Amino acid sequence: MASEFSGRTASGWTMLAVNLGGGLASTGGLIYSIVLAARAQGSGSVTGPAVMIVGSVLAMVFFLVMLCGHFTLQPNEGGVLLLFGRYKGTVRHEGFHWANPFLTKIKVSLRARNFNGEKLKVNDQRGSPIEIAAVVVWRVHDTAQACFDVDDYKDYVHVQSESAVRHLASSYPYDSADDHTVSLRGSTDQVSKALQSELQERLRDAGVVVEEARLSHLAYAPEIAGAMLQRQQAEAIVAARARIVEGACGMVEMALSHLESNKTVDLDAERKAAMVSNLLVVLCGDKSAHPVVNAGSLYT
Question: Which residue would you say has higher pLDDT here, 297 or 25?
């Protein structure tokens, strides 16, 4: 596994001045040697000027090659340096740099990126077909791993993200009536943390850090959406009824206890049962109750 380390570079402005100065000097030397060679043609001794011409040409070629070593880096951008296939480090400082002109410079963005996944049709933990998609915020942390441990780190992130979303969808139910059961719809924060943790484990080999991962789309598949909506409505009605009955029983117990403690009225078992029945009908009914006033005695 590759590991990133800092690469060495020189100031681009300093080396630009050196290379331009050397190029101008070699150009002047070439012109001067050509003039000398033209004057020496009459005497027949052109060996010295010829050597100067060759040296000046070589110097010009050298400084032209040296100019190829300049490169720039923007903020949050890294430059991976390779010398004949061998890793020589990474430059992370923005600005104008110069390095060995024979080095290959691979620029890698270190900025945060968004991956908006497509809608995937998978089965949840209960086997129900659902549509799910996720948004992943990631950035390159180790440029050496991103360049050398995987073939294409961008495509690697996309494929692994889709695989993680599929695995996540099959690990949890779409919805649950129990508040303590983790579900895709009801436990958004917990599901997002699980997705981020799994993605980080999968993308560690590519030198990628997952900043955030959240579901962007979640719905039942169209072929079962209607049936599942009816089931959700039924479950909601049952849960609401259970809560109403629980509250009504508590209110009836409180009323009886209050009447007995204050000795407001002395009720026998039969009258208590009738009172409980009436209160439950009033409290648990769908519509407003219409009271009947008894104008007679309590026991008529």
Answer: 25
Question: Which residues touch 257 (CB under 8 Å, ≥6 apart)?
Answer: none
CA-nearest of 242, 88, 127, 99 to 177 is 242
Q: How far is CA 70 from CA 40, 67, 100, 279, in A?
A: 40, 6, 9, 88
Tell me 11's DSSP state.
E
Confidence of residue 191 (pLDDT cuts 50, 70, 90): very high
**pTM of the complete model beyond 0.90:** no
Dihedral over Cα of 254, 259, 261, 267: its sign? negative
Which two structure tokens, joined as six digits, stand for 82? 């390779």
Sign of the C-alpha dihedral, residues 217, 218, 220, 225? negative
Rounded distance between C-alpha atoms, residue 118 and residue 221, angstroms: 15
Contact 115, 135 (CB under 8 A): yes
Rounded Cα distance, 200 and 137, in Å:
11
SS3 296: coil
**294 half-sphere exposure, CB direction, 13 A CA radius:** 5
Closest among 19, 128, 112 to 63, alpha carbons compared: 19
SS3 282: helix
Q: Is 91 strand, coil or helix?
A: strand
User: What are the structure tokens assigned to 237, written together?
Assistant: 């009605």
Share of the chain residues as helix, strand and coil, in percent rounded to the nearest 5: 50, 20, 30
218/131 Cα distance (integer angstroms): 6
Q: Please state the φ and ψ torsions of residue 217, each to the nearest 5 degrees.
A: -150, 135
